[in-house]
Amino acid sequence: xxxxxxxxxxxxxxxxxxxxxxxxxxxxxxxxxxxxxxxxxxxxxxxxxxxxxxxxxxxxxxxxxxxxxxxxxxxxxxxxxxxxxx
Length: 86
What we know:
- The structure is a single chain.
- With about 90 residues, this protein is α+β, with helices and mostly antiparallel strands.
- Helix content is about 30%, strand content about 35%.
- It has two helices and six strands; from the N terminus they run βαβββββα.
- Strands 4-3-2-6 form a four-stranded antiparallel β-sheet.
- A hairpin with a 4-residue loop joins strand 2 and strand 3.
- Helix 1 packs antiparallel against helix 2.
- The radius of gyration is 13 Å and the shape is globular.
């Protein structure tokens, strides 16, 4: 079984921008990742930390196929979302 989400690129980029400003990039590579968690309620929760500050944002999805929870490199995901546009 596979899970998928559909979201506008600009919506994802706007949600990732403050997370990318907070997260740690230098000392611990895992801290440069953002956690994406989608339950079956149509909401995507994005969270990140630098061990002093934790940031979390919830955004509504256009479409969803299943629940998932994963971590991805925040800066790369932000760059891809910016490129995707609307």
